[in-house]
Amino acid sequence: MYFRNSLTCDFYCSVGSKGGTGLEGPSGLKGKPGTTCDCGRYRKVVGQLDVNVGKLRNAVKFVKNVILGLKETEERYYLLVKEPKRFREASMNCKLRGGTLAMPKTSNTNHLMADYVSQAGLTRVYIGVLAQSKDTNETSTYVYADSSPLQGFAGWSQEEELSSTVAPTTNSSCVELLPTGAWSHAECDATMFFICEFPKSRRRGGGGRGGTPALASS
User: Fold this and answer.
1) N or C: which end of the chain has fewer CB within 10 A?
2) Residue 76 bridge partners (DSSP)
3) pLDDT tens-digit profile of 75-119?
4) Count of other CB atoms within 10 angstroms of residue 74
């Protein structure tokens, strides 16, 4: 019995030779046509990326050329521009840089700006204060560069304070800051250095400190 079972296993359990390759099957169905490339949209994205890269380059240039000479408070940056200009030209230059002529609205800010002038070895600079108009009593109202009135603080020296409400002489309705922190009347056609100020941008949601202003080197 054992012998017969062994023969049966040898006959049925042995592995046969590998068969030949079968016939090639039929071709599959034709696929659906692809969508047309929306290249215009991608060009727009690439263009925006180029703009962003350009802004980053300008920011890096700003950091390299200006940041070491920049002063700041919690809300603003201050830049001393060493380019002699008339008052109107100085005001326009600050606007082109993304800011305004510096407005010392508090004693702390005025002190910071005065130290800035003193450390630079200068005797005077334009600031964003000027005479606005004359009233019926021939007196002038001095305002900041953003047209807000002088309230709570004014840096006039005692001598200048007496004449700050009197109609200024021809073309002397602008104001300069001295390294002592005192304000003085100045002729608007005089050329001198000036200080620009820039608000610190805030991140969305009001959190965190903003970045440096986007402006050219001085």
Assistant:
1) N
2) 199
3) 999 999 999 999 999 999 999 999 999 999 999 999 999 999 999
4) 6
- At residue 122, φ and ψ (nearest 5 deg) are -100, 160
How far apart CA 31 and CA 4 sit, in angstroms, is 59
Q: Are 200 and 84 in contact (CB under 8 A)?
A: no
Give the SS3 label for residue 100: strand
Which tokens go with 56?
A: 């980053």
**pTM of the model as a whole:** 0.62
Cβ–Cβ under 8 Å, residues 206 and 98: no
Say which residue the tokens 């450390």 belong to.
119
pLDDT tens profile 152-199: 889 998 777 656 655 555 567 899 999 999 999 999 999 999 999 999
